[in-house]
Description:
Layout: H1 16-21, H2 25-40, H3 48-72, H4 74-77, H5 95-116, H6 119-143, H7 147-156, H8 158-167, H9 172-195, H10 199-203, H11 208-211, H12 214-235, H13 243-265, H14 268-273, H15 277-305
Helix pairs in contact: 2-3, 2-8, 2-15, 3-5, 3-6, 3-8, 5-6, 6-7, 6-8, 7-9, 8-9, 9-12, 9-15, 12-13, 13-15
Enzyme class: transferase
GO molecular function, one term: protoheme IX farnesyltransferase activity
Function: Converts heme B (protoheme IX) to heme O by substitution of the vinyl group on carbon 2 of heme B porphyrin ring with a hydroxyethyl farnesyl side group.
Amino acid sequence: MTDTSILPPQSGEAGFGDYFALLKPRVMSLVVFTALVGLLVAPVPVHPMVAFASVLFIAIGAGASGALNMWWDADIDQIMKRTKGRPVPSGRVTPGEALQIGMWLSCFAVVMLLLSANPVAAGLLAFTIFFYAVVYTMWLKRWTPQNIVIGGAAGAFPPMIGWAVATGGVSVESVLMFALIFMWTPPHFWALALFMKSDYADAGVPMLTVTHGRRETRRQILIYTLILVPVALGTGLTSIGGPLYMAVALVLNLAFLKGAVDIWRRKEEEAEADGYAVEKKVFRLSLYYLFLHFGALLAQAVLRVYGIGGW
């Protein structure tokens, strides 16, 4: 839990950029993209204004989750090199401000999505905010090395919410888009953890590299990648897939699987000798992996409009 007494005094008045950073814009951009894809690939057309408003409120909900996360995690964010420059641990925004912004934006986003779309989409957004802010941030993150595995569900809901905006429900297609992000999250973050070295240990976060060692982390990256591949390819066999998506998925998954095997084979001495070059390469690939899969789904949907590209 955040202890405000350990935070540095506020260094000057916070600006707009500080409050915007509080919403984790990089994470928000991924949420917006995957939610938009989920909405656009759905079989039910959505009015452009409804689509714009819905994606906006989903983005605001994601930002609210980020603010609540920064409020609670300010103590450990201050310790980790990757996060100590964030608005709250750096003292530019107070924990109380972060909490208020997160709570107000959460309520606003859910209510407005309910009014602009439907109860299913609003309910999924409310659950996503709760899951990320409470289940992951306040409980899982500091309690279990499975924090990333279970907590990954929070980042996997946006395409399902987008689909619900259009259809008012959940389907096999939206569940597979959820599963694609859910299964991608562990190898993505564990590849990062391998070369972040002592950050998580210093902060007392039970990341798998800390609790079970780096050898086991490498093995788990391979296991989750082996599960991820059929999920990604299986998505291509549904109504939202097609030859274009399948071609992209085949190339990406072969490359990602090779990267996971390379990580698994590596000894720690080899990784340290070349500055974790392979681990960093796989992590960079993982960033493109998700974007290109959802981009292919979107391109497939555009082709479908013109009566081409489907199975």
